[in-house]
Amino acid sequence: MSLEVAVAAALFVGVIAYAVLGGADFGSGFFDLTAGSSRRGAELRTLVDHSIGPVWEANHVWLIYVLVIWWTAFPESFAAAMTTLVLPLLLALLGIVLRGASFAFRKFSETLEQARLFGVVFAASSIITPFFFGTIAGAIASGRVPLDGSGDRWSSWLNPTSLFGGVIAVGTCAFLAGTFLVADARRGGHDRLAEELRTRALVVGAVTGAVVFAALWPIHEDASTLSDGLAGRAAPLVVASALAGAATLGLLWTRRYDVARLTAVAAVAAVVSGWGVGQYPWLLVDEVTIHDAAGATATLQGLLVAVGLAAVVVVPPLVYLLRLTQSEEWSRH
Amino acid sequence: MTPDVVADVLAQLAASTEPEGLMPARQQMALSLGWHIVIACFGVAFPAMIFVMHLRGIRRDDPVALGLAQRWAKASAVLFAIGAVSGTVLSFEMGVLWPGLMGKYGDVLGLPFAFEGLAFFLEAIFLGIYLYGWGRMPPKRHVLMVLPMAAMGIFGAYCVLAVNAWMNVPTGFRLVDGEVTDVQPWQVLFNQHALLQFAHMWLAAYMVTGFAVAGVYAVGMLRGRRDEHHRIGFLVPFVFASVAAVCQPFMGHVLGLGLDERQPSKLAAFELALEEESPAPLRLGGVLVDGEVRGAIDIPAIGSLIAMNSFDDPVPGLDAIPEEDRPPVNIAHWAFQTMVGIGTLLMVAVLWFWYQRRRGRDLLEKRWFLRGAAVAGPLAAVAMEAGWIATEVGRQPWIVYGVMRTEDAAGSYSGLWWLLGATVVVYTAMTWGAVVVLRSMARRWRAGAVDLPSPYAPEVVAGTSGDER
């Protein structure tokens, strides 16, 4: 593996981690928004708060990781994407700001009115953020971001591939969150809530799976390079994703929630990896390859040192945190 | 103004070669960075104060100190959350506002950001563990979870300052026919200027956070609440702030040495020096109007002493700088003087406090002192902002000193003014939310609430209220 590809792979690991870990946080906002009136939804909202409270900031850092590696390793393509895709990027950013702030504010609200206001902002922005990130992925994957940054500010992300990308992103986030929340609810002893969430997670999963496979057709028409990649090199990942998704639905159906979390993560990781492998060796599809987009060699080497250090010093405490939050001890209400 | 003049000004503006995105990008960056660094100060300095308080609570089995540590931890949860998102805004803005800089120099300046990301990662992880670990972890292990936060806040600040120091004193690359080559990213991370800039900012963070937190308890004492809770709630952060306030002027002086060679235009603007003088006076106040200094008070020779560490070394003047390379002189001069003025005032004030205390007089009994302590936090924040304005505006028109002009870094967007307007709205709302929530937390604590349950339903669901989350 060349140096450039190694760094691109490290970057893409960040994309997958953000899609899975950050995605589950965003998806919790979907369930929070659709939890119903304050009386009916209180139990679920408390669960959401409990479930993502300790981890959302750490999960959020994957986004910073991706941005930093991107601009450091592939600076010109970063500037190009930021210029062409300025609108969806800013809208996603707006969602990130509103979501993070209002989630923290809601936790310490004094009155129900305040909690309601901050809660709606948190939940709504949890949905718009993955949507716009999905459109951005679609824009890059369909070859709409030229290296000189001169892509159309609107049609670059308002097109079939991008819009499907947005919907898929929202769906996969909700699907992930559903399986995690079901498991959390049962561990916390909220059996009635777990049953309710199980039904909703099944529906969300089925719809998202259908959308993912329905999207293959517009992608075929609209983004031929990606489509060829998906049918070729990335085909095993597409199949793996389908299998893992179906398995998750089966496990949810039979109430084996602990295993369902793993297959859900596998399904989403496979879908996202399918995108990455499908568009390889392009960084910006049809515009610039990973190899040509790379910056200075010394910098790429430095980045790999940073990534290696991260693997050593960040992953163990991250695993510790995630284990704590998934433990019985921290689940007790 | 007559219509002619207006038309003339408009024509000049229209004819200017500045890219459309330059002015709004500048304002946008100033707003979002100026907002973020205040919050970032808490990320850098608060964990150390929480650690000391928490440790005191455990060591002396002191419930008051433990209670304070727990409250501070909860307040920091709110501050860190808005710090995390406003920091994310900045990383987007690097690309959105300054594509010229990032496209060309992204691989030169990027490595420190990668390490900053690493630091932020650890900080966020241990914040999660610490905040949610109250009552769930053995106390001795729990308190140790603050230490990585404190260390990483400091390391992360160093990394960001390394990039800023690089913008002031670029290194780690060569320009050959306009192409960036021979990139040495480690040289940027460990550039010789970074440590000094970092140290100055680090002390500023302790001043802002220490004075602000102490000020909260000073206000409480002014309102007659004079218990142990308020006494140590004031003193612990005040000790941090005092040490920082006394060291800061010296640190700033050391940082400023050599500025005449690094950035003579910045020094000349700070000193409002039109021409080289030897020895140079210290020029207090004053504005530059039509090439003349008006209203300044000159103190002979002190300018040379402060800027050059000597009684007669000349301070360079603006006349040596081509007009198109000069920064906005008045802004840089006033920002610099504001910073120095407030910094000196705070240093004198804390020295006086500790001197009196040594003599057995407790100034905490004096209302005038408490009033002063209450405004010290905002003052320190103003001084820090002024310092940033001085260093950033003083570097203009360069984004990378001597290498890239700010106008070449900006994009050619239309519509950035709309973005600025939206940002003002969002940041105002975020500030409002934080103030409302923090104040209501304080109010509920005063009323005797301990756990601050989240009110998700008309009546809080039974069993969730005793939660320490």
UniProtKB/TrEMBL annotation, chain A:
TM regions (residue ranges): 6-31, 52-73, 85-105, 117-141, 161-181, 201-219, 231-252, 259-278, 298-322
Topology with respect to the bilayer: Multi-pass membrane protein
Keyword Calcium: no
GO MF term (any one): oxidoreductase activity, acting on diphenols and related substances as donors, oxygen as acceptor
Subcellular location per the Swiss-Prot or TrEMBL entry: Cell membrane
E.C. no: 1.10.3.-
Entry keyword Transmembrane: yes
Chief location bin: membrane
Keywords in alphabetical order: Cell membrane, Membrane, Oxidoreductase, Transmembrane, Transmembrane helix
Pfam families in UniProt: Cyt_bd_oxida_II
Superkingdom field: Bacteria
GO biological process: aerobic electron transport chain
InterPro entries: Cyt-d_oxidase_su2
Gene Ontology cellular component terms for the protein in this record: cytochrome complex; plasma membrane
Similarity field: Belongs to the cytochrome ubiquinol oxidase subunit 2 family.
PANTHER family (alphabetical): CYTOCHROME BD2 SUBUNIT II
Protein name: Cytochrome d ubiquinol oxidase subunit II
Organism placement in taxonomy: Bacteria, Bacillati, Actinomycetota, Actinomycetes, Propionibacteriales
From TrEMBL, chain B:
Record bears the keyword Transmembrane helix: yes
The enzyme's E.C. designation: 1.10.3.-
Name listed for the protein in its UniProt record: Cytochrome d ubiquinol oxidase subunit I
Biological processes annotated in GO: aerobic electron transport chain
Keywords: Cell membrane, Electron transport, Heme, Iron, Membrane, Metal-binding, Oxidoreductase, Transmembrane, Transmembrane helix, Transport
Membrane-spanning ranges: 33-55, 76-98, 110-132, 144-167, 199-220, 232-251, 334-356, 368-390, 416-438
EC class: oxidoreductase
Protein's cellular compartments: Cell membrane
Record-level GO cellular component terms: cytochrome complex; plasma membrane
Pfam families in the cross-refs: Cyt_bd_oxida_I (PF01654)
Listed GO MF terms: electron transfer activity; heme binding; metal ion binding; oxidoreductase activity, acting on diphenols and related substances as donors, oxygen as acceptor
Membrane topology: Multi-pass membrane protein
Species of the source: Nocardioides thalensis
InterPro entries: Cyt-d_ubiquinol_oxidase_su_1 (IPR002585)
Family per similarity comment: Belongs to the cytochrome ubiquinol oxidase subunit 1 family.
